[in-house]
Amino acid sequence: MTETVGTGARAAAGKKGKAAGGLSVQRVFTTEGQHPYDQVTWEQRDVVMTNWRDGSVNFEQRGVEFPDFWSVNATNIVTSKYFRGAVGSPQRERSLKQLIDRVVHTYVKAARDHGYFATPQDLEIFEHELTWMLLHQVFSFNSPVWFNVGTPSKQQVSACFILAVDDTMESILNWYREEGLIFKGGSGAGLNLSRIRSSKELLTSGGTASGPVSFMRGADASAGTIKSGGATRRAAKMVVLDVDHPDIEEFIQTKAREEEKIKVLRDAGFDMDLSGADISSVQYQNANNSVRVSDEFMQAVENGTDFGLRARLTGEVIDRTDAKKLFRTMAQAAWECADPGIQYDGTINDWHTCPESGRITASNPCSEYMHLDNSSCNLASLNLLKFVTREGTFDAPLFARAVEFVITAMDVSICFADFPTEPIADTTRKFRQLGIGYANLGALLMALGHAYDSDGGRALAAAITSLMTGVSYRRSAEMAQVVGAYEGYARNAEAHQRVMRKHAAANELVRTYHSNDAAVRALATEEWQKGIEIGAKHGWRNAQASVLAPTGTIGFMMDCDTTGIEPDFSLVKFKKLVGGGSMQIVNQTVPRALEALGYPGEQVEAIVEYVAQHGHVVDAPGLRPEHYEVFDCAVGERSIAPMGHVRMMAAVQPFLSGAISKTVNMPESATVEEVEEIYFQGWKLGLKALAIYRDNCKVGQPLSTAKKTAETAAAEPEKVVEYRPVRKRLPKKRPSQTVSFTVGGAEGYLTAGSYPDDGLGEIFVKLGKQGSTLAGVMDAFSMSISVGLQHGIPLEFYVSKFSNLRFEPAGMTDDPDIRIATSVMDYLFRRLALDYLPYEKRSQLGILSADERSAEVEAAYGNPGVDLEALQSTVDASPEPHAEEPEHPHREAQTTTELMELRLGKAADAPLCMTCGTKMRPAGSCYACEGCGATSGCS
């Protein structure tokens, strides 16, 4: 058993020893005699969520209770997604306490009923530790737990499912039914169709078989119907076909051919965007397709030899194909439409703990869960950034203790869980597959000064992953000693022990570069040794322990900056402002990274200011070029190379029971040969699965049509006409007005001159004493703006550029319409917008007068009972969070996909959220909505 030793927020490694009749644990995060709820400050909040497209309110619940350090975004998502009960009814949950208690108390009851813990005191510690970690966003269970546990509905806890289909019509029709039930419940499923006879084989009646691709049409239509029937998330499904199936080439090209159809329909005038009215007429769009390749096939590709395609019933070779040519066909199709992905069968089954019970043939839709057919997996993810110490190291002992509690709770959930079908229930209860993982790896590496694509970054990621899985299996062995090994263990004991030794051996091969990752790996070594020793005597409680999932909705719940294994998305985020609009702020991981790299405070401020203006670190003042790579992100000026993503996946894969949900993004300029190389290197480096996405490869990707049109137009010969702006001078006598203002105690005057037909034509700003440098700069600035206005530059352009600029003087103003300004420029252009722009344009910019704001609030909510005075400004002038406030540095900050598209000048291939209309962003192999937390796959 394990005794976890420690008090408060830090603990030393636990002392191991046997507990009579159950696990014995000690406190890690909590304090005896004090409930976790009593250690935080609670506040009341109103949650009002609107549709991004039309502004309509799609969810509203007022007076909810959350800790003061939870962000607005996390509050909104948890309230709208996870609170149970009819909105507006007394039964509706209204506090995070109720949500956590509903779930934790169910787990505690099951742990007591099934004898997991030695004493009632141990059970109380288990309850308090889970509560504390959930309350403080240290980890989260997957969404089905929050949806279902502790409610009158079925207690489904799994997010990932694998189905099975045989070569009979009954089995195929049952596949449609089971998949529909899983989609209806908001989860996803995957399966392998390779048992179905190919279109080149005969039926017993003498006719020719339809082949698996034909049956895919029916399943795709079913998934599309359920999705469009009001589901809160897109139907998530994975279809796998073995590379030796005679219909493999048809399977590979299904979605590429449909992409050609989309082009033709688009050119004919149909709406073929991702959420267009006519896209539903295209087939095979509701599933991710993957080819399951064998080592034999990959060796044939490497050697340039033929490869045999085998009959499904007899296994005999009925056709031969050029392996290199087939591999090129896969790469070509993926280059054209991002499908199919690839799964490496040899690697997957070499790490299989239960081969005597069947092969691993498929995965869930996001590709991280891989185990037996008709099985499921429940997930939970830890927030890695919560384990960074003040000294800038990763607290491995604390992480290990947290993993103990989380993996124990995950196993307990199987004791009371319900499942969508009886075969899935039977397999899951016999093998007890778990999927512990983590989020915020990209933010963690940057905060500690590691580049994502670096040996040091990969070493730390590998060591953390090894420690997580090693502790999980050690705890699993301890649980087996108390409540028994999984039912299928006896038959698979030799294979399970072999895989444990493989994990431990891979841990020894991790090359460390820093005392930090060396310490983590050293503890992981101890955990693997102890786990194997205990497991050899008692077996293991779980056939599988760990995966790396997308962590979409639960990542938002934990206020994570990055999801799963992903790097940071960008160096800037966009903060929602009171009353509308947004303001760009620098990701707070950037100053933490600069401090970790040894930069003094003044240089940190200068670099952060540069990043705020440019969105990247290239040529930032004082930043050494060798440190640029630390700030490389998924998108932007310095985006991580595709092989950088693959190398990170390869570093952590040997320490995962399952696989990794991740798509490797490639630039639009990538070639088919480069896609081939990525897929080939994935096999060489020991990955279990891999998928790529080449930017702008889909016709449905927004802006691609406009770009194509522009290219076509440019190719047509036509007369080039050069247009130049013409200055429209103001008359000698023109109307003007002068406004006196005060911003943060600095006084000034703004004089604005207009054309007689009412249009701003010039400004003069008086700020500072005559003859001073500031007065001269303001005179020059005023002349520049005036000349621009007279040459036709719209005022709204200037307003969008200069509002929200942040520098001193800043603060309170004497203007009743603009109570707070982040700078003089921010005030001046908001004042000009109020005086000279129509309401419609100002509303789009989020600039309204005090009366207009009051009228909007009253029209929407009647007597709102809120501080209307505070709503008179669209600017949040609260001070920037400091480095010494790491608990909640990202409150209200989001990186919305639309805003990132505007910054980068290109579109992302992502669907619109079916709930709130916001464009989703990639999260692993799936998509997640930052507006409301909806996901397209597992979470």
Describe the structure.
Helix 13 (441-447) crosses helix 18 (589-596). Strand 3 (42-50) and strand 4 form a beta hairpin. Residues 1-20, 228-233, 576-581, 701-723 and 863-894 have low confidence and may be disordered. The protein is built from 28 helices and 26 strands. The strands form eight sheets. Strands 5, 6, 7, 8, 9, 12, 13, 14, 17 and 18 form a ten-stranded mixed beta sheet that branches. It is globular, with a radius of gyration of 30 Å. Helix content is 40%, strand content 15%. The longest helix is centred in the middle third of the chain and has 29 residues, at 455-483.
Largest sheet: 10 strands, mixed
At the fold tier of CATH, the topology name of the domain at 164-357 is Anaerobic Ribonucleotide-triphosphate Reductase Large Chain
SS summary, helix count: 28
What is the residue-mean pLDDT, rounded to a whole number? 85
Roughly how many Å is the radius of gyration? 30 Å
List how many beta strands DSSP finds: 26
CATH architectural group of the domain at 164-357: Alpha-Beta Barrel
Could you tell me the strand content as a percent range? 15-25%
Detail the poorly predicted runs. 1-20, 228-233, 576-581, 701-723, 863-894
Structural class: alpha/beta
**Per the principal axes of the C-alpha atoms, what is the gross shape?**
globular
Helix fraction? 25-40%
- The CATH class label of the domain at 164-357 is Alpha Beta
Distance between the termini: 31 Å
